Amino acid sequence: MSSNVPADMINLRLILVSGKTKEFLFSPNDSAADIAKHVYDNWPMDWEEEQVSSPSILRLIYQGRFLHGNVTLGALKLPFGKTTVMHLVARETLPEPNSQGQRNREKTGESNCCVIL
């Protein structure tokens, strides 16, 4: 299938945690949020066990990094007419650098974070 990718499109091979894969064609103008919505609306039959309740919790991982919803494929400089592999995971929120995740790892219950009002 990969050899038939139109020259102005990007073929994404999405891999689930379970290891199942499926390929979808997207335009460079499509954002991570657009892709999540498209995949959710066209959920593959053989992914039934992994079905999620909402497209908003679908996250793309490219080269080990979570993509925020507004990032387009073009902005990632993905090659046109080729297949790019990404992971697709269900996750409520994206990890923020130096946010609560950092605090939760500390042993004390105290917060050494400042609230700016």
Automatic annotation (TrEMBL):
<keyword id="KW-1003">Cell membrane</keyword>
<dbReference type="GO" id="GO:0005886">
    <property type="term" value="C:plasma membrane"/>
</dbReference>
<dbReference type="InterPro" id="IPR040015">
    <property type="entry name" value="UBL3-like"/>
</dbReference>
<dbReference type="InterPro" id="IPR017000">
    <property type="entry name" value="MUB"/>
</dbReference>
<dbReference type="InterPro" id="IPR000626">
    <property type="entry name" value="Ubiquitin-like_dom"/>
</dbReference>
<keyword id="KW-0449">Lipoprotein</keyword>
<dbReference type="InterPro" id="IPR047977">
    <property type="entry name" value="UBL3_Ubl_met"/>
</dbReference>
<dbReference type="InterPro" id="IPR029071">
    <property type="entry name" value="Ubiquitin-like_domsf"/>
</dbReference>
<dbReference type="InterPro" id="IPR039540">
    <property type="entry name" value="UBL3-like_ubiquitin_dom"/>
</dbReference>
<feature type="domain" description="Ubiquitin-like">
    <location>
        <begin position="10"/>
        <end position="88"/>
    </location>
</feature>
<keyword id="KW-0488">Methylation</keyword>
<keyword id="KW-0564">Palmitate</keyword>
<protein>
    <recommendedName>
        <fullName>Ubiquitin-like protein</fullName>
    </recommendedName>
</protein>
<dbReference type="Pfam" id="PF13881">
    <property type="entry name" value="Rad60-SLD_2"/>
</dbReference>
<keyword id="KW-0472">Membrane</keyword>
<keyword id="KW-0636">Prenylation</keyword>
